[in-house]
Amino acid sequence: MNDLDDFRAALRQPPEEPFAEPDLARIMADGTRLRRRRRVLTGTAGVAAAAAVVLVVVFAIQLRQPAPAPVARPPSPAPAVSTTSPVPPAEQAIGNVVGTGIQTRSGEIVIFARAVDVPKLPGVRFGLVAGFRSGTSLQAVLATNEYRGSDRSFGFHATDGGEVIRDQVIPVFGYFAGPAAKITTVVHGQTVEAHLAQWTGDPDVVIFWFHPDAVPNSAVLSPLTAYDANGKRLTK
Amino acid sequence: MARGDEEFAEFVRASSARLTHAAFLLTGDRHQAEDAAQTAFTRTYAAWSRVRHKDAYGYARTVLVNHVIDGWRRPIREYATEAMPERQDRLDVDKAVTQRAWLTEVLRTLTDRERAVVVLRHFFDLPEADVARELGVSLGTVKSTNSRALAKLRVEADPEDTLIGRSGR
After folding, report:
1. Any idea where the domains of chain B sit in the sequence?
2. Residue ranges of the domains in chain A?
3. Residues 33..72 of B with a Cβ closer than 8 Å to A: which?
4. What is the pLDDT along chain B (169 residues), one digit of tens a residue?
5. With helix as H, strand as E and coil as C, how does chain A read?
6. Residues B64, B37: contact at Cβ < 8 Å?
7. Between 1.10.20, 1.10.1740, 3.40.50, 1.10.8, what CATH number should domain B3-72 receive?
8. pTM of this prediction exceeds 0.90
9. The domain over range B93-161 is classified in CATH as 1.10.10.10
């Protein structure tokens, strides 16, 4: 056995005292809470390209039909079947639709806000949606919203994404309530800056997203940091 | 318990010792290691429906390593210390306690990146290309970092673990 084999054997030698067993109940509870932060929208087979979407609800949340907004309805909305909740209407955004510039076969990846009306979340009136924009139609792919307290409390909210949905990497995205002029994270020791866009639905809200080349998945994210226009750190 | 949950529980039972051990090698601290493993399993559970039929272990390993690395929250240090503990003549499995103490000490002499490369390459036995992908660095960086780490540890490397480039960053 050479030196390297010895070293490898040493690395793999069991500890003197076994490590504590993971707390499975807590893992499942915390993992479920993580999962509940998102509601993934998937299209029914064959009509995915159309506007109808099926809301797969992990957390029983119903959406309020938003007020008409200057976003065109997708053509020929087809009826869809929801397993756990009513079918949402054709996608309509509150405020501006933020283009990421990332083009896919389904269109440009965009981020927009949508109304949320959940009795259990009285302080949450909107959430964010990542989806595709093709022509004038919007197709929702991943929706997320704050799930504790107020959706406008100072700080980060509804950070999600960073995963492959419908064969496409959906960027890590979210919003910051406050005067953020720069948002960063650290990936593999390197600081990465987010793209920012002011939300016209509320001038105090800044929508952000990270390009998938820089932040390929949510697992690599470190806590986000926001700075104001003077470079002053807004978050711990 | 739902079928998916049963599978996940079995997955945790089967992989927790190894992943926590890896976290310990990365952090050098039992409590941090156990917390890191708990976090990795939590994130894996959140993504279980997507990863259960793929490489769940690989996913959990990636989450774990990235969680620890990002927890360091600082630029990669190149040389943590110049001091090197005296090594025993040769590693001997019969001297397990001594060996563990030596290993713990010498791993502390490595930089964060060196430790990560060593653990991924020699504990998980990942090919260098996979280590590079997991850490988001070039293959050459993995080779040089690994070679330098082994040299610091005074471990004689195999030919495939020898330095091929001078750039360590």
Report:
1. 3-72, 93-161
2. 38-227
3. 33-34, 37-38, 41-48, 50, 59, 62-63, 66-67, 69-72
4. 677 788 999 999 999 999 999 999 998 888 889 999 999 999 899 888 888 887 889 899 988 988 887 665 433 323 333 344 444 443 443 444 556 677 777 788 888 888 999 999 999 999 999 888 888 778 888 999 998 888 888 776 655 554 333 322 2
5. CCHHHHHHHHHHCCCCCCCCCCCHHHHHHHHHHHHHCEEEEECCCCCCCCCCCEEECCCCCCCCCCCCCCCCCCCCCCCCCCCCCCCCCCCCCEEEEEEEEEEECCEEEEEEEEECCCCCCCCCCEEEEEEEEECCEEEEEEEECCCCCCCCCCEEEEEECCEEECCEEECCEEEEECCCCEEEEEECCEEEECEEEECCCCCCEEEEECCCCCCCCHHHCCCCEEECCCCCECCC
6. yes
7. 1.10.1740
8. no
9. yes
Distance CA A16, CA B11 (A): 23
Question: Could you identify the residue written with the tokens 């997955």?
Answer: B11
Contacts of B113 in chain A (CB under 8 A): 189
Closest alpha carbon to B23 in A20, A215, A34? A20
Chain B, window 93-152: residues with a beta carbon less than 8 angstroms from a chain A beta carbon: 93, 96-97, 99-100, 102-103, 112-113, 118-119, 122-123, 125, 135-137, 150
Contact B58, A47 (CB under 8 A): no
Choosing among B74, B104, B120, B155, which should be mutated to test the A contact, i.e. which has the most A CBs within 10 A? B155
Strands A190-193 and A182-187, by their bridges, are antiparallel
pLDDT of residue B111: 84
> Which residues, 6 or more positions from A196, have their beta carbon under 8 angstroms from its beta carbon?
A180, A181, A182, A183, A206, A207, A208
Q: Are B141 and B168 in contact (CB under 8 A)?
A: yes
The whole-angstrom distance between A236's CA and the closest CA on chain B is: 13
